[in-house]
Structure prediction request, 237 residues.
Amino acid sequence: MSKSSKYVSNLIKHFKNESDSKKAIAMKKYMRDQFPFLGLQSPDRKELMKSFIEKNGRDYTDDDLLTIYNQPEREFKYVAIELAAWQQTCKKIKLPESRIELYEKFAQTEPFWDTIDIISSKLIGGHFKEYPDQIKEYTDKWIESDSFWDRRICLLFQLTFKKDQINIDLLFNFINKLLVNDNFNKEFFIRKAIGWSLRQLSKTHHNKVFEFIELNRNNLSILSIREGSKYLKKTLI
Prediction:
């Protein structure tokens, strides 16, 4: 067994040894019975991750991360995302442009809000801060995807951007494209993401969001307007 394979197998064993069948049933039910779980809630999972890293270090590859992510139990997806996020924030590591391919594979493997939201805002958003020239290539593809989860990424990847990093016109363009597509405009996770992205943007560009909502009030869903208007002055809503 290679060093890389041993790292992954040890990690999987480390987490499976602490599984809780009762909690696993409840967690699966919470996620609409779509995915199996080990029954490890966030605090327990983070403690297990800490103890594993202390013993085994962080000597893992992109292939290792993908292998971990592809395990059937949902917690392994969270673990892979956390390991990838650590590499992204480590000053000693310079991730290549091609790293976006791993994040895209993550996002397109059994997507649901629990993985897509953190992949979008932390992994993909963080990557695009380093490689902004890739934004158009990938978002042009995702916004036209048949998967509304890909389209949701386009709405959320700028959530952690600073005021001077946000491309407002790009976000508004994405929203307008989604509004003219009845199938996607009716999708709850798209309507919610539109509102979320507008709400976050309103923290730094209050008037821009107000004007956009007023201009598109007849096309935006009630949910999108309610979410997007949360931080706007009540007198303007």
Q: What stands out?
A: The radius of gyration is 19 Å. The chain has two domains: 1-93, 133-236. The chain has a mean pLDDT of 95.
